[in-house]
Amino acid sequence: MLTTLAVENYRSLRRLIVPLERLTVVSGANGTGKSSLYRALRLLADAADGGAVAALAREGGLPSALWAGDRRGSGRSPVVSLRLGFAGDEFGYAVDFGHPIGAGAPSMFGRDPEIKRECTWAGPVLRPSALLSDRSGPSVRTRTADGSWHRSVSALRPYDSMLGELADPRLAPDLLRLREHMRSWRFYDHVRTDAHAPARAARVGTRTPVLGHDGADLAAALQTIRETGDHEALAAAVDAAFPGSTVEITDQGGRFELLLHQRGMLRPLGAAELSDGTLRYLLWTAALLTPRPPALLVLNEPESSLHPDLLPPLADLILTAARDTQIVVVTHAQELAAALARGARSHRIGTASVTLVKDASGRTEVAGREGPLDEPLWHWPKR
User: Fold this and answer.
1) What residues contact 296, with CB distance under 8 A and at least 6 apart?
2) In the chain, what are the domain boundaries?
3) DSSP letters along 38-81, please?
4) Could you tell me if 164 and 172 are in contact, meaning their C-beta atoms sit under 8 angstroms apart?
5) Distances in Å between the alpha carbon of 359 and those of 12, 15, 69, 270?
6) Distances (CA, A) of 136 to 81, 140, 162, 188
7) Which of 150, 235, 315, 372 is buried most deeply by CB count within 10 Å?
8) What is the DSSP letter of 112?
9) Is 329:23 a contact under the CB 8 Å cutoff?
10) What pairing do the DSSP bridges indicate for beta strands 186-189 and 149-151?
C-alpha cells in the first residue's frame, strides 16, 4: 500500500507531500489543485509505461507543466526541476524531470524534458542503505538479488525511464516488481454519459473483468461481475440507488445490451434511455466491483452528474471496493467526503482526509498543516 505521495514544481503544487491510506479523500474548492494532484498520480503511472515524457509533452511540455509561481530560492539560481514520487510499505520511487543541457546533435525535440534522476528504494523513506536502483543522467546501477550492485553497460536515453528499460528479472527483480505494481494502477476520470456516449450503445460482448476507460463495455463488465464477481454486491448497489430496480443484460446475436427494470415501469429502459446520472452510477458500479481489483484505483470527481441522493450509495460502493484495493477519491462534494468518512469508521477502513487550499502566493497547501513537521517524512534524491 502507498503511504506517501510527493510532488514538487508541478502546476500549482510548489511542494506538496500528502499522506495516503487505504482510502484517501482529496477535497477542496475549485482551483485549489485537486486536478493537479490527480494528474501527478497519472504521470507517475505513465512513467511505468515509459510515457511520462510524452504525457508532459501533451500538457505543453515543461514550460506549461512547471510551477507557475516564483521559483527563486535562497539566493541561488533556480533549477528547472519537476519532481514526482511515492513511497509505500514495500517500495518507493522518485523521478526528476528537467530541461536538456549540453550541445548535442540538432533536434526538433530539443524542448522535450529529460529525466535527470530516478531512484527506487525499499520501505517508506529514501535512505542510501535502502536504495534498490539509482539513475543519474544516462547511468544506472541496480542492486542484484545477492545485494551487490550492477551497473548498466549501455547508457539510458534521457527520455526513457529505467522502469521500462531495465526491469530485468535477473538483474533487477525489485525494479520489475515495482513496474508491474505501478502498471496495475487504474484511473477513471469523467466517463462520458452524453447522448452519444459509447456506454449507451449495444456492443459485442466478451468477458470484461476491467471496465474500459470510455465505458463502451459496460454491459459486458456488469455481466462479468454477475458470473465471476460479487453478484450480490452488484444487486445490492443497484437496489440501494434505485429501490426495487434490477439490471438485465440481454444477448442480441453476440451484442450485449443493458436494460434497467424499475419498479412501476411497464418495460425496462435501455442504456440509450437512461439519464446521465443513472448511467454514470452504473458505470461506477462496474468500475468499483471489478473482479480484478488493481493495486491502486483513482477516481476523479465521481459525483459529477449524480443527484445528491446517489452519493450515499456511491460511498457504500467505494467502501466495498476499498476492502480489496487502495483508493484515492478526488472530489469537490462535501456530502460524498462526509459519507465516506462515516462509512470508513464503521467499516474500520484506514482513511486519510486531505483538504487542499491556496495560500496568498498561489501555492497549494494541505489545510490545517502548521509546517514541515506535520507532513510525512520525505527525502528527494539529489541531482
Assistant:
1) 2, 184, 185, 186, 325, 326, 327, 328
2) 2-19+33-185+357-374, 188-293
3) HHHHHHHHHHHTT-HHHHHHHTTSHHHHB--S----SSSPPP--
4) no
5) 11, 12, 12, 48
6) 14, 6, 11, 33
7) 315
8) S
9) yes
10) unpaired
For cell 482513511, what's the residue?
351
380: cell is 528527494
Percent of the chain with pLDDT over 90: 69
Contacts of 143 (CB under 8 A, 6+ apart): 131, 132, 133, 149, 150, 172, 174
The pLDDT value given to residue 213: 92
CB 129 within 8 A of CB 94: no
Per-residue pLDDT tens over the stretch 51-105: 888 888 888 888 888 887 765 554 454 578 999 999 999 999 999 999 877 656 6
CB atoms within 10 A of CB 241: 24
Angle between the 231-241 and 276-288 helix axes, to the nearest 10 degrees?
160
Q: Which amino acid is at 163?
A: L
Residue 82 and residue 109: Cα distance in Å, rounded? 18
